[in-house]
Amino acid sequence: RCVILNVPFDFFLVLEKRYLEILGCSSVCQLCTGRQINCRNLGLSSVPKNFPETLYLDNSGIVYVYPKAFVELKHLYFLYLNDNFIKRLDPGMFEGLSNLRNLYLQSNQVSFVPRGVFNDLVSVQYLNLQRNRLTVLGSGTFVGMIALRILDLSNNEILRISDSGFQHLENLDCLSLEGNNLTKVPSNAFRVLRSLKRLSLSHNHIEAIQPFAFKGLVNLEYLLLKNARIKNVTRHGFSGINNLKHLILSHNGLQNLNSDTFSLLKNLIHLQLDRNRIINIDNDTFENMGASLKILNLSFNNLTDLHPKVLMPLSSLTHLQANSNPWECNCKLLGLRDWLVSSAITLNIYCQNPPSMRG
User: Fold this and answer.
1) Domain boundaries, the chain
2) CB of 149 within 8 A of CB of 171?
3) Which of 179, 182, 192, 262 is 20 to 30 Å from 161 at the Cα level?
4) Residue 323 has pLDDT above 60, yes or no
5) Are the beta carbons of 326 and 349 closer than 8 angstroms?
6) What pTM did the predictor assign?
């Protein structure tokens, strides 16, 4: 469908169903206000030199961008290259874009990012690379991106991240790695991300949270580990993230929780443990988060009983969900009933056994 032509470095050409020479934006584009130009879906044949702050090239059939293609667009703030067929990012591709703030590269076919390709993007705060074909993040993948705040790498095929893969991202606030093929938390790579507040590793193949897996993420507040196939959280697995407030562990394979599982999360407000395989929770599991935890979800597990001592330390708890467990309504559950009567917590428990009390 598309053919890339060899042209001077300040243009890149795409040949589609028709040839189109753009002499000025007003003759072609849907919107040309002096601040924004919309040239989507127009079968472009060239990129003019004097676009203003926003350039839409998404869904345009582009397969390759030549080095220095944007070198004249020094005042560009927003560049949309998403939903194309770009397979390679070559050094020099973004030369001249020192003022760019947002770069959209999602839904392409990029399989590797060479070191230095983002060197010139010193002002970019938002980079979207989701839904590409990345498998490895090599050393210095994002070198030069000193202003980056939000990085979306979700829904790629990432297996490995170099220890220096996030070099220069000391100001990063939000990182999404969900929907990849990671088998462990890339702990060494994370250690430079001291400003990170939100991290998603959902929908990976992690299985176990190893000791000090998140060490260095001292400002982390949101950690999403939904459907990451986690079966075990080792002692000190959450060490080093004492400021964590929201932990999402839904849809995993956890079975037993004990005093080591969450012992260092003293500021946690919200804990999602629904849709695991939990059969046992030790009495002191939540002891250290008693003053902070407000929301706890234990729904859709394999709990048959729950000792009130598990919940007694949670003096700040306002919302508790534990529905869809196979509760056995016998003497073991009387303590929980009595605790609920004396607390402000409302909890609906439907008996699985004995059969005479089912429902």
Assistant:
1) 1-172
2) yes
3) 262
4) yes
5) no
6) 0.86
- Helix H segments across 117-267? 187-190
Give residues with Cβ within 8 angstroms of 287, minimum separation 6. Answer: 259, 263, 313
Q: Contact, 228 vs 252, CB < 8 A?
A: yes
Q: What percent of the chain has pLDDT over 90?
A: 74
Is residue 104 within 8 Å of 81, Cβ to Cβ? yes
- What's the Cα-to-Cα distance from 10 to each of 73, 84, 289, rounded to whole Å? 9, 20, 58
Asked if 149 contacts 168 with a C-beta cutoff of 8 angstroms, the reply is no
Q: Give 98-122 pLDDT, tens digit per residue.
A: 999 999 999 999 999 999 999 999 9
Q: Which of 36, 37, 3 is nearest to 17 (CA)?
A: 3
Instruction: Check pLDDT > 50 for residue 222.
Output: yes
DSSP per residue, 232-268: EE-TTTTTT-TT--EEE--SS---EE-TTTSTT-TT-
What CATH homologous superfamily does 1-172 map to? Answer: Ribonuclease Inhibitor (3.80.10.10)
d(CA 8, CA 350): 72
- Residue 177's Cβ-count burial label (10 Å; 0-12, 13-18, 19+) is buried
Q: What's the rounded mean pLDDT across residues 239-259?
A: 97
pLDDT of residue 199: 99
